[in-house]
Amino acid sequence: MREIDTAKKMFDDGHACSQAMLAAFAERYGLTQDLALKLATSFGGGMGRQGLTCGAVTGALMVLGLDAGRVDLEDDAARERTDALVEEFLRRFQEKHNYLNCNELTGVQMQDPEARAQAKEDGTFAAVCPGVVGYAAELVTELLEYDPE
To answer: Can you give the pTM of this predicted structure?
Structure first.
């Protein structure tokens, strides 16, 4: 539960969804907080503010890769486990939120600086994103215990 609370707080403190997700789980995998924040920076706003895949999703997938990803090219079991975790995460996330993309989740055209400023000012991000980050962190926490076999 600590990671879930940390992810929510980091987002509330001003970090991008992707940063909040990866940094919340960083210590578990031997990453420094600074390195996790740097790695995840470019995924914010739907990958570089393009409104594509939500940063909470990309951050979650990075965490799942850290947990189960393969290093040895011959380790087919690690690849299969990672793919199964990602598939389950995406299925459940879409089941709850309908979308994976930042533009659709927020209703904001992330490429448009004026639209982003308006969404920040009118509370759109504050209304949508903490719930998305919290759910993604909860789902990752559950899936770290998931055995797809």
So the answer is: 0.93
Cα 30 from chain centroid?
18
Contact 7, 26 (CB under 8 A): no
Instruction: Work out the average pLDDT over 67-80.
Output: 94
Identify which of 69, 50, 53 has the alpha carbon closest to the alpha carbon of residue 18: 53
The pLDDT of residue 146: 52
- Whether 10 and 130 have beta carbons less than 8 Å apart is answered as no
Q: Where are the domains of the chain?
A: 2-141
Contacts of 81 (CB under 8 A, 6+ apart): 68, 148
pLDDT digits (tens, 9 = 90+) for 28-62: 999 999 999 999 999 999 999 999 999 999 999 99
Strand partners, 53: 101
Which residues does 39 contact at the CB level (< 8 Å), separation at least 6? 22, 31, 62
User: Over 70: is that where the pLDDT of 148 sits?
Assistant: no
User: DSSP string of 9-66?
Assistant: HHHHTT--HHHHHHHHHHGGGT--HHHHHHHHHTTHHHHTSSS-B-HHHHHHHHHHHH
